[in-house]
Specification:
Layout: E1 2-3, E2 22-23, E3 28-30, H1 47-57, H2 63-68, E4 70-74, E5 80-82, H3 83-101, E6 111-115, H4 122-132, E7 135-139, H5 145-155, E8 159-162, E9 176-178, H6 182-187, H7 196-201, E10 210-215, E11 225-229, H8 230-253, E12 265-268, H9 275-286, E13 290-293, H10 299-309, E14 313-316, H11 318-326, E15 340-343, H12 350-359, E16 364-369, E17 379-380, E18 395-396, E19 400-402, E20 417-418, H13 421-427, E21 438-442, E22 448-453, E23 458-460, E24 463-465, H14 467-475, E25 482-490, E26 494-502, E27 511-513, H15 527-535
Parallel strand pairs: 4-13, 6-7, 6-8, 8-9, 12-13, 14-15, 15-16, 26-27
Antiparallel strand pairs: 1-19, 2-3, 3-19, 4-5, 10-11, 11-20, 16-17, 17-18, 21-22, 23-24, 25-26
Keywords: Cytoplasm, Ligase
GO molecular function: CoA-ligase activity
Pfam families: AMP-binding, AMP-binding_C
Length: 542
């Protein structure tokens, strides 16, 4: 999969199938979306400044909107942060950092490590660092000491942001700013006029500069630090901006017949240190939306937040869709404002989607597919009709190209990992194509289908069994709350499927019952942990 952010992908070539986007000569699938214009690569521009320019280019750029519309709502306290206050805090923090850290004029080599749960301060920190050209690297605050030490070792940060609860996991010699300290709050209230010396230090950020080092979920080994440029994210934000412009034109054309649209309100239950949460936070600001921030997820707390704040949209992972479908407590809350779930992070079974729509006929599920290495976007659903393709994750995103290759021969049916040349070589081919490690197919209409993780296929005799297929089947049972399938060693077959089941009744013989399935922050099953659990009792012939 590749994203050429210099030259928009087109499907005008006569060789390219207009239905699927497939070029039989190059064996490349091209995006069927209209090419999205991007700023010239040579133009100095940070992701933060681009996102704010998108905000200002919309009708939202008026004094009344900026002063009265909240960009952030703290779900635990109810505190509202207006767009006007948010912009002022970003500018104030940027000036404070320039003055206090004695940063050089070129900040692209400066890195800030961030270890914090979700809060209304985290997006302010992100936009400030991005505008200054400082590479940000957020990590899981619940990560183990050894994992965080590994992340510090490969990113080599110059300073860090943390909280009183997480700072103890950082090296003692690392300059750390606590987000829950008076020092940080004072940095948000720097009202001094910009002096000439500070203005002269304001950096010119190149789009090719590193915006963030985000960590992969580590489902197949130790987490890797993925290097992503400002332009990587700018290209993805541009696609959403173009979609919004098209929607605005359609609404304007039908203004006489349509009621005014409510302010979009999204619920940020995703961790903002993950690429999915990071991108959705930046996207929400660029789109002029309101984000309700939840520090720690629990199902009923989320349902209360949807009811209280009239949430219209939620980015979610597949396990939450399963939980909403099967939970009995959902009926106690008013979810009538909810219109769309943006689902990604792992395959979502067709049966689950169908049962979800039976329970929530007015809520659409827009599936998408991406990786940390693709800045969170690869394919997605845009039109309402596309959400009806339950087994798909949508069409290739704007300016995207993809290949389906033989996993053995590599035949077709740059940026990389920081501090890990071996992983980079294994993941990118000599032509720069990203090997996603997913078992995929495109259908005749250009919709992408994710069947499973290639590395997680179970080798049963001469057959390859996708765990996700069995998981989807088991999840369809009403008495199974959650499930994960792993390979288990077998003398005759090599490997057999073993299921870990969360269920009230132990009705099936060849399963292991467990209180909860271990998953990454993005909702991916951590099969390696389950495999270690299964093997800890010794191999067996089943």
């Amino acid at each position: 999969m590749a994203n050429d952010t210099n030259l928009p992908t087109t499907t005008n070539d006569k060789r390219v199938d207009p239905n699927s986007g497939f070029d039989p000569q190059t064996k490349i699938f091209h995006s069927l979306r209209p090419a999205v214009p991007l700023p010239p690569p040579s133009q100095p521009l940070s992701l933060g400044h681009y996102a704010l320019s998108v905000l200002r280019s919309s009708s939202a750029d008026d004094t009344n909107f900026l002063s009265s519309t909240p960009v952030l709502i703290d779900n635990s306290t109810g505190r509202h942060v207006s767009y006007y206050l948010f912009l002022r805090q970003v500018r104030s923090l940027s000036l404070s950092l320039l003055r206090s850290l004695s940063l050089s004029t070129r900040h692209s080599s400066t890195t800030a490590f961030i270890l914090s749960p979700n809060s209304v301060h985290v997006p302010v920190v992100y936009f400030s660092l991005l505008s200054l050209g400082i590479t940000l690297s957020p990590a899981n605050p619940l990560g183990s000491d050894s994992e965080i030490a590994h992340q510090i070792r490969i990113t080599r940060p110059d300073f860090a942001f943390a909280t009183s609860a997480t700072a103890g996991k950082l090296p003692k010699g690392l300059r750390t700013i606590l987000l829950d300290s008076p020092e940080f709050l004072s940095m948000l209230e720097n009202n001094d006029e910009e002096s000439e010396d500070v203005v002269s230090q304001w950096p010119k950020v190149r789009q090719s500069d590193v915006a963030a080092i985000l960590f992969s979920s580590g489902t197949t080994g130790r987490v890797k630090g993925v290097v992503l440029s400002h332009r990587n994210f700018i290209a993805n934000i541009a696609g959403f901006h173009e979609q919004r412009l098209k929607l605005a034109e359609e609404l304007a054309a039908a203004a006489a017949e349509q009621e005014p649209q409510p302010q979009p309100v999204s619920l940020m239950i995703l961790p903002m240190f993950h690429v999915f949460g990071f991108f959705m936070a930046v996207r929400a600001v660029a789109m002029g939306e309101t984000m309700v921030v939840i520090e720690r997820f629990d199902l009923e707390g989320m349902l209360r937040a949807v009811e209280r704040h009239r949430v219209t949209y939620m980015p979610v992972s597949p396990p939450l869709v399963v939980a909403l479908t099967k939970s009995e407590v959902v009926g106690r809350y008013d979810l009538s404002s909810l219109r769309l779930l943006g689902c990604g992070g792992a395959p979502l079974g067709k049966e689950v989607v169908e049962k979800f729509h039976q329970k929530f006929p007015d809520i659409e599920i827009g599936q998408g597919y991406g990786m940390t290495e693709t800045a969170g976007i690869g394919a997605r659903m845009v039109e309402v009709e596309e959400t009806k393709r339950f087994s798909s994750v949508g069409k290739l995103a704007e300016n995207m190209e993809a290949k389906i290759v033989d996993p053995v021969t590599g035949e077709a049916l740059s940026p990389g990992y920081v501090g890990d040349e071996k992983a980079t070589a294994e993941t990118f081919d000599p032509e720069g194509w990203l090997k996603t490690g997913d078992l995929c197919l495109f259908d005749s209409e250009g919709f992408l289908h994710i069947l499973d993780r290639l590395k997680e296929l179970i080798k049963y005799k001469a057959y390859q069994v996708p765990p996700a297929e069995l998981e989807h089947l088991l999840q369809s049972h009403p008495d199974i709350a959650d499930v994960a399938v792993i390979p288990y060693p077998d003398e005759d077959a090599g490997e057999i499927p073993m299921a870990y089941v969360v269920a009230p009744y132990k009705k099936v013989r060849r399963v292991a019952f467990i209180n909860s399935i271990p998953k990454s922050p993005a909702g991916k099953i951590l099969r390696r942990e389950l495999i270690n659990h299964a093997l800890s009792s010794g191999k067996a012939k089943l």
